[in-house]
Amino acid sequence: MTARGEAMAPGVQKEPSMLLQKALIGGHYDALARAREDGRKVVYTFVPGNLTELLRSFDLLPVLPEINALQSAMRNKSAGYIAEAEKHGHSEDVCTYVKCDIGMLKKGNLGPTGQPLPKPDLLLLSYTGCFTFMKWFELLRQEYDCPVAMLHVPYQADGVIQPHQRDYIVRQLRTDVIPMLEYVSGRRYDEAALQERLALSARAEDDFVHVLESAKHVPSPIDAYFGGVYYVGPIFSAFRGTKEAIEYYRLLREEVDARVTIGAGPITPDGPMGAERYRLVVEGPPNWTSFREFWKMFYDEGAVVVASSYTKVGGLYDRGFRHEPSRPLESLADYCLGCYTNLGLPSRVALLERYVRDYRADGFVINSVKSCNSFSVGQLLILRQLEERTGVPGGFIESDLVDPRYFSASNIRNRVESYLQMLDQKRPAGARP
Amino acid sequence: MNTDVLITAGIDVGSSAVKTAIVRHPPDSPPEAIALRTDRIRRRELRKVIDESNAAALEQAGLSRNDVAYVASTGEGELVDFRRGHFYGMTTHARGAVFLMPSVRAVLDVGALHARALRVDERSRVLAYRMTNQCASGSGQFLENVARYLGVTLDEVGPLSCQATDPQQVSSICAVLAETDVINMVSRGISTADILRGIHLSMAGRYVKLLQAVGAEGDVLITGGLAADEGLAGALRDRANAERLAITVRTHPQSIHAGALGAALWGGFRHDVLSKRARLSA
Amino acid sequence: MTPSLAAIVARAEALAQDVSLDSVRAWKAAGRQRRAIGHMPIAIPRELIHAAGMLPVGIGGGGDRLEIIRGDAYFQSYICHIPRSTIELALSGRLDALDGMLFPSICDVIRNLSGMWRLLFPDRYVRYVDVPQNFDPQVGGRFWRQELDILRADLADLAGRAINDGALRASVAVYNEQRGALRDLYEARAREPWRFPAAELYQVIRAGNLLSAEEHSRFVREYLREAPLDPDRRDQDRSRVVVVGMFCEQPPVGLLMTLERAGCWIVDDDLLLGLRWLTRDVPLEGDPLDNLAQACLTSHVRTASMYEPEGRRGSWLVESVRRLNADGVIFCAPSFCDPALLDQPMLVAALDAAGIPHTQFKYSEDTGQFAVIREQAGTFSDSIRLWSQA
Amino acid sequence: MTVMDVFVGIDLGSTTTKAVVLDGKGGVIGRGITNSRSNYDVACGIARQEAFVAARFALTQAALAATPSLCDRAATLLPALSRSFRLQQHLGQLDLLRDALHRVAAQPRYQASSRELDGSVDLIVDTMRDRAPAMFGSLSVRKSDFFRDVAAAEYMQLAEERAGRKGATFDALAGLFDAAILPVENTAADNLFETHIGPALDRVLNARDDAAMTESMREVVTRVRGIDFHEASAVGTGYGRQRLPFPKEQIRSEILCHGLGAHAMFPGTRTVLDIGGQDTKAIQVDPQGIVTSFQMNDRCAAGCGRYLGYIADEMNLGVHELGPLAQQSRCRVKINSTCTVFAGAELRERLSLGQRREDILAGLHRAIVLRAMSLLARSGGVADEFTFTGGVARNAAAVAALTGLVHENYGQRRLNISPDSIYTGALGAALFAQRTGHP
Ligand SMILES: Nc1ncnc2c1ncn2[C@@H]1O[C@H](COP(=O)(O)OP(=O)(O)O)[C@@H](O)[C@H]1O
Ligand SMILES: Nc1ncnc2c1ncn2[C@@H]1O[C@H](COP(=O)(O)OP(=O)(O)O)[C@@H](O)[C@H]1O
Ligand code: SF4
Ligand code: SF4
Ligand code: SF4
């Protein structure tokens, strides 16, 4: 979800927003390492459907285990963690985020930055868009023996939020989640504080959407997938509802606008990207263990991702959703319901179809990860449906999130290469190179 | 021969060889193996191989069929129609291994199609196990195929592998497609020893994972068809060191027969239980 | 085997292999305007379908005989087998007898499968049935009742007739009867497993996926009466095991036979939970839909797909092992089944703490090679047998 | 000297390497194939050379056909010439083999018996030489096009006959061959048209041919020999394409090449299935031969040609014998193992249970075809027309099983199989070469 600016080749100039993003995320790990000293309480929760504003309003620090897992993978630590978890009886077949997290815990719970992670005071099981979440925190509960608050978010099978679904979430917030947060933090629920946070969120969300939509320009100033994972970092994790996030997205917006003005493309780990040759939409999460190598397969060929579904797992802001101070709990409920993996397949297809058209994509690629049934089941049908609806050919890659055993570089390169050559061949004569 | 002493036989039917053990159980000293055989099947009729193996083992022990009080089968033992009981492979390998080497606390049984890691206690009870699944990558058969392509016999594999100076990684994991890699290596002039070591190392990599998964510690005995392959044992030591797995890889000249021995030993145990029962009911 | 038992077994076998739903077609043809609604393995209130005069049909995959031709087109290799066989059945027209399909929330695979159904069969009725994971009557209960209201209205639409409380109450009674028969069968089997070979028992129960509840209750009762009369079935020196993990994709019968041949008596399992979802009868007095909704919150089977608010996942397993006087537990889960496989470490920890032996392996509904499973189960039962005497 | 522009496509497959030569107008004038089991560069060189040889034969034929005085005689002469040429080539390789065998026999591990071995080797190779003309006779059918296969079969048979009890045992002789054949394959034999065609022609022209005709014949051959092929452009593809000595722009994905090649052979093609040695591809193409979607399997041997190859080895059969046997089955067995190696074990087990070879084989063919069906499904199904390529398309049982399943699941489809289907990828590559070569 969020990656820190580690992937840059030496000598490549970093943009200020990159440095800030890195500092933000690093700062959060520092705060976590100090949490016990500072007397702050820690809540573990998941990215999709996270209730950061609510947690912050109780002055609680969120820990997002998915992010620890992917950060560990980018630092080549995941393989060892997964092996550790498998040694403790976790199956080879299941989501590798879970195993990476459990393995990290078993090996002393040092976070990706090498600093110790605090134990949770509460596991906030925001059960949104993925069944594995439930098992994950059930497993953690066994390790930590701490309280769990369950927030069951119903599935948007029909593509619309039904009133009884929203009502169900709000009731759970009132009767289970908020009382538990009060108990853990020792504070009363303060709706005004929450509203203030929600207002801050909405401001960052505006700039974030502006950045995502800048990819409609040709050439696109951003890579909305490989670059996008850096952009979503703050807003999908611990920084929603903070001033820092507002600052970051403002800065990012300015940089992106500046590139649009001069017609420049995205910045890659090897510096500014060469001529834009292919515009792609990508569905599915990236691979983290060989993230840079994976990205390079694309930018070396002049392929830029103009829109991705992965940058929507923490909310579909570009489809109009904003956190609303005027209906605090209801808008948190709508936020949870609207996360990408909580959408029915027909909605996902419709969304991707729009992206292909609105962002004038030459093609779309699905990166299907072994770990994630929530994302992956049905992707082959999505591929067929999109091809039919848009007339644009799709490519299909298989890899995994944080298990390097399932990233076969030669295989993936072969597929990417074949796919891009296929797009070339499809171009009407005289079209762009 | 004095047949007052209990004699049992164990027959381990594998997919590439039949192993037979005859064990004597003196009343006041530990049991001892008095005949051990391995007969490779080589596309022959299995039932015949079994009968021959048994007959030859009896001959070796100077006994006749009637001297054997309990015949126990293990492995694919359905075809041993003269058996009295059957024990499953891991049960017998554990027993055989601890019998051969009492300090053993884990067993790695490498057969033609599967490899199994077992953690056992001092009484050879299986505490945990892991098996490879339905993919033959890294199996004994794989090694056998590679040897065939390299034009070396199975007995040469181990010594050759130990002479390697610059082991070569095998890139594809598929047991069948890896042959292409092997052939390519040969044509690139890479020595047979280095190729074999590479294969051994990649197999050992898988086995170390199995051993890790069962939580193996201390002495680990390799049993099964590959038990005599020093190259594999060496590679396993290398891998275990690299993974900082606290095990000592042990080999034993008779550990190819661990399954058959284990079956014969358990046969002795069951025989006692059954006789006791018979006496009680009489 | 007595002739009547042989007939029961033959019928059960035939129904278990009826992947083309011939029996459902026959049922529909036997009356005017008859409709059938399919559903995936767990948590579906079949009473509602019944009360609308329709036939609930449990879809449990394609078994080991179905060749998958087009089903693979939609699923990567690392996804379990049941969705591909289910899609294969649908694409090949074998499920044409169904007038609608319900997908309960079992896991992400089934959840997404519901969306695939919508895309592939836009003119058929599909509904994702979101089972609550909050068991407070005012919160989860309220939500579930609202879900059921929607379902009731939809089903009434499909059936062309309203589902009134009287009809629903009558249906609940019919299903209470079936629940009772199944409970009795499981209890009898736990006492004397040799009288009810696992594969046979499984197929007799599986018939309930296709038969009407009334008929299935009779069928089960008949079996319960006949099976113990077979004089050839005798107790043997085997270990008593509880098998866990088979709640969704069903194992091939060969696997169940293999477990028994390898020296195990199965004394409890989680097969076919869709037919055994509620562990107690649903009260007949009061609002029947409220009763149904409530029963689902308070007396559903414990399984990996349902949240355990108390965090007592392992203890119920330990309790049932003790209650059934079992020697150990076999975890037998479909490959790539996240719920079952993620559940295991928690259950294992509890068993270890209680000193209960266990072993585990994976299958797929079309597994044909049982050598490895036999080896593992055999070693497991060997160790229980040999070491209990040692 | 005439200069002729040609375009070359090379498909470096895992099992075989194929080359196709196109003339300036895009017509196929030559095809060449060799075993890839050796050095990639060499394989590529040999395939190309073979294709050029074939091209020259084609040109010779065209020239003869265009000369009225020669066209009658050409009909019998040309096939004889070709056989004679092949024989010449074969003899050259036998010489190489003899040398290599002696070299191996001189190694220390054979020290004790090197004299016996040398003697046996000479005896065997002499016999092989003696028998060679018959093998290239007008009526004979060779089991394989590859020297390795042909020589191995003969050598092993002779070795078995000649094996002594001591020294030159069968095992030792077989060991020699396994070690010697690799360097032979890895030597780009001097088999150029230019060198061999002269002696070959001399051998076929006989006294009955009148001098004038002989003369004009020689003249045609000399003219063709003199043509200077100018490789206007070459494109490489296939499994090992990254290792081809070509710049990046001249390398195309095998998927695209297969699609285009299949389209060129059968313009109605919409779906292509290629089952090669180490990978299987299902490809959908549009009416222009442009790939619109594809799926491939290249990690696991089960489902690729190697699966059948492995089974053939297990049964001591040649791959070409499997299909006909399987077709004799009356009651197919369901194979339970997925893995190739396990399937091999299952085969042995079933045979030992007394099940019929052909029934088991039918099951194995069914298994590989079912995998292909699932790949096809994933690529988008089977549209009309359907073209089947790759080595396995030569297997009649696989074709029959595939046809049946396609028919049942997708309806009536026209199935195209070309005897040259193994060259599909190389043809596509050559067509790409033609596109890039022409401004
Ligand atoms: N002397 C040997 N040296 C090296 N490997 C051997 C030797 N003998 C057997 N093997 C290997 O052992 C495997 C067979 O092991 P075995 O335990 O006999 O299997 P199974 O019990 O299934 O027959 C063969 O595939 C071969 O790789
Ligand atoms: N004459 C034949 N009859 C039947 N099968 C064949 C024949 N020739 C080759 N094959 C099969 O085709 C496979 C090789 O296919 P090929 O297309 O040459 O592979 P690649 O392109 O990967 O080199 C072999 O493994 C074998 O199974
Ligand atoms: S299954 Fe997917 S959404 Fe769920 S935890 Fe794993 S990666 Fe995240
Ligand atoms: S990858 Fe190779 S060894 Fe593994 S299952 Fe496939 S064929 Fe067998
Ligand atoms: S078998 Fe497991 S993973 Fe598959 S659909 Fe059922 S519950 Fe989900």
Give short descriptive properties of this protein.
heterotetramer, B: 282 residues, alpha/beta, Nucleotidyltransferase, domain 5, 2 domains, 5-stranded mixed sheet, 10 strands, 42% helix, D: 439 residues, 3 domains, 4-stranded mixed sheet, 55% helix, 13% strand, globular, binds adenosine-5'-diphosphate, binds iron/sulfur cluster
Descriptive notes:
- The complex is a heterotetramer of chains A (433), B (282), C (390) and D (439).
- Chain A is α/β, with parallel strands linked by helices and 433 residues long.
- Chain A has helices spanning 16-38, 52-57, 65-74, 78-87, 96-106, 132-144, 163-185, 191-213, 228-236, 243-262, 291-299, 328-338, 345-358, 373-376, 379-390, 409-426; strands at 42-45, 61-63, 122-127, 148-152, 267-268, 271-272, 278-283, 303-308, 363-369, 394-399.
- Chain B has 282 residues and is of the alpha/beta class.
- Chain B folds into 2 domains: 6-87 and 257-281, Nucleotidyltransferase, domain 5; 102-251, Nucleotidyltransferase, domain 5.
- In chain B, the strands form 2 sheets. A 5-stranded mixed β-sheet of chain B has the order 3-2-1-4-5.
- In chain B, α4 crosses α6 and α4 (154-162) crosses α7.
- Chain C has a 4-stranded parallel β-sheet with strand order 2-1-3-4, sandwiched between helices. A 4-stranded parallel β-sheet of chain C has the order 6-5-7-8, sandwiched between helices.
- Chain C is globular and about 60 Å long.
- The two termini of chain C are 36 Å apart.
- The B-D interface holds B 15, 43, 45-46, 112-113, 134-136, 139, 141-142, 145, 151, 172-177, 180, 183, 186-188 and D 14, 37-39, 174-175, 178-179, 182, 185-186, 278, 299-301, 304, 306-307, 310, 337-342, 344-345, 348-349, 352.
- The structure holds adenosine-5'-diphosphate (2 copies) and iron/sulfur cluster (3 copies).
- One adenosine-5'-diphosphate is lined by residues 14-17, 75, 111-113, 140-141, 143-144, 154-155, 157-158, 224-226, 228-229 of chain B.
Count of runs of 4 or more consecutive helical residues of chain D: 14
The major pleated sheet of chain C works out as: 4 strands, parallel
User: Rough shape of chain C?
Assistant: globular
Mean pLDDT figure of chain D? 85
How many extended strands of chain D?
9
